């Protein structure tokens, strides 16, 4: 016994190497392509940043009802669906009816139109306006437990909100 491989051993080693290489290439394709997509296409980018800047400049966000005290202002972008949210929260102890009446007036004055639901019925507290190449949705909620939310949501996929 000289320890030399049998003549079929070299062929078997070559087949094994090719099999391992094929599995490695398949793994790279299955894991690598989604990773490449995630790193290059997924998430919020400059386009969403520009949209957020336009939305943040809307005066309706600062037009709170009398007696409301602004708690904070925020701006977000959902990396998965790439929708942009800009809003403000206020401490307010008035009624929801007063809030809706107030925002129907100030939103209309700022170019917002009431969103209609099925049968041309208005969706309370929801307004639309063309903005940044898409349609933006202004939603007014509350006050719940003394907190009023005024929020604009939009994306370039032209989703419908509120």
TrEMBL record:
Top-level taxon of origin: Bacteria
Transmembrane segments: 20-40
Record keywords: Membrane, Transmembrane, Transmembrane helix
This protein's name: Secreted protein
Species per Swiss-Prot/TrEMBL record: Streptomyces edwardsiae
UniProt lineage: Bacteria, Bacillati, Actinomycetota, Actinomycetes, Kitasatosporales
